[in-house]
Every structure is written in structure tokens, then in C-alpha cells.
Amino acid sequence: MIDLVDLSLDFALDQAAMANMGLKQPLPPSALYKREVRASTWLSPVKLRIGRNSIRVRFCPAKLFGGWNAVGSDDLREWVRTLAPLILQELGHRVTSRQMYQFRFGRYRLHEVHIAYSFGLPGVDAEEFIGQVGKALAHLHLLEWIHPGVGFRLNPRSRTAEYLVYAKLRESLDQGRKRIAALAAGLPVDQRVLALAAFGHQLNYAAAGPRLEIRLRDQFFARSPFGRGSNWVAATARELYVAKLQALELPAAVRVVPDLGVAEGRLKPAVFSTFLHWAADRDLARIASTTTLARHRKDILDALGFDIRLPAAGVLGSARDIEVGSVLKAGNLLADKFDPDDGDASTWCTTGLPPSNPTRESNG
Question: pTM of the prediction?
């Protein structure tokens, strides 16, 4: 699903919209004015950078569209065609037929796109999976924890591509539930049931397993034909996602070590790294010198009572492996069926309700 879009439009806001934004015309040629706008009909803020002859718009389609972003469409151009005119109209801008043509045919530049999917995870708790995999990958990739056990970033703040792995269910329960409850409180009872049912569907998808989000940034788009919206089709988001996923070097499995938290607390980071490599049955001679390994062996022996000269399987006994390669792979990606054309998308956006299903209604 498309989780975030950051794009530039090559035209200026009209005078009415500029006045509503508190901006005086004409703007200085090189000036960019930042605004964060939240209208009464939006369920998520929209960030703007307004220039003399351009508008940069950054928004989360699914949040703006339906309150939360566990599920959503893969079709970037359809999102922009549907939502960009509504955003501009909310600002007081009169959208011209030429501008509608630009939205329809992808005549805009992309600066950043986030694409996210969940993956099936039978038999393993998602937060345990994330915690154990994150600790293992911390010594193979540049990694930053979002929150221990809840999520982590790989290649944080990269201007090309950043990867986030997290438990979407926890995030949905912590934040999405509050937003949906606030939304539902202002609706009639029958519509409130629909809104809460839609959120329940999102929770079911979020509970299926870990979520991996790939954030494609400006340097990626500067070197890619996909920096133009016109080069996107409905399948582009998934194709880019799968290509980036396959390029990410992930271990086939990680060893789950009993009392790993104790080990991490007692050992210095470099020594803990050696301990993890030993627990995963890796060749320690390839990661450190003989002198360093001797020093780390003593530290581990003193702190934990484990001798890393012995095979890890015999020492740890109850250690087990968590599959990684078979979970975070394209064939295990869970696609939720979501169609922004299933009913009146603009109605959902402006009322906070999912669109009606014409097929279901016509069947009585």
C-alpha cells in the first residue's frame, strides 16, 4: 500500500487560497513557505511548501482517506487524482480543468513515497520476531530502534531508501484506536458502527504479522524514471517494493538465545556482538583477531558462564531459530483487497466513512 506521498505541482495557488493561507502575493521568487494544515473534514494533517509557481504537498492517503493506515491502495496515481484536488479545494483554491488533467495523467514530480505491507507470521509473536531480528541485524546493518521490541529502522535517514520493520498492531492499538474513537464519537449511531467495523478490519490485517515499510527518498527519485507520476501504473508500487526487498541482505534465520536481555545488559556492545555471532554459529575468526576473541571469551565467560570456544548448540541447549528469509520475502507478502473506486472516494474523504459498496447495495 502507498503509505505516504510527497509531490510537487508546477502551478501556483490562486489568490483566494493564498489569502486563506495568510500569504501575500506576489511571493518572492525563491521563497518557500511551510504550512501544516488540518481541515475539519481531514483525519490527518497535510504538509505544504508553497512557492511562487509551485506547491509541494505531503500527506498520508489512507489516514486522510479513512482515519488509519493499516490498509490502503497500491495505486499512487489514483490516490493523487482523488485526493489532491480535494486538498486544494479545502484550501480555497479553484482547481482548473488543466490542473485536473495534470492530476489524472501524473504530471507532477515525486520527492518521497512510502510503501508498506504486512507479512504472514504463523506460530511466532510479532514483537518477539521484531526484537530478536533487530538485535541480530544491529551488527550487520546501520540500525536504529523505534522502540525496543516494537520496531526498528535500517539505513536510518538515508536519502535513497530507509527500511522500517515494526508491529503495526501495537501502533494501531496505541494510536489508531484513539483517532477512530474520536471520529466515531461525532457520527450518528449507524455510521459509527460502519467506522468502527472498518477499523476492526484494519486491526485484523495489522495482527497478521510484522510490517515492513520502505521509504523511497529524493535521491532515489532523482535517478529514477519513477520520479515522474506519469511513469507509475497500478503495479509500480509493489514492483519497486519487491525489488528493494530483494536487495536487502537478510539472514535466513536468527538464533533466539535464552536470557538475551541479560547478556546484552552485562556485556559491552563489541563483546555482545561477538556473543551473538557465536550464538548464530558463525565463524568468529572472520569477525575479530585472535587477541580480541580471547579477551571477549574471558568477558563472556565471566559475565554469563558460556565458553565461546565450544559449539553454541551444545552450550545453549534450548536456543532456537526464528526464520527471517522465509517471512520477509515477496511470496509471503499479505495484500489486503482495497479499492479506492469501490464507491464514492470523495465521500469517504469528506465524511470520514468508508465508501459504500455498490455491488452489495445492488444485491439488496
Answer: 0.76
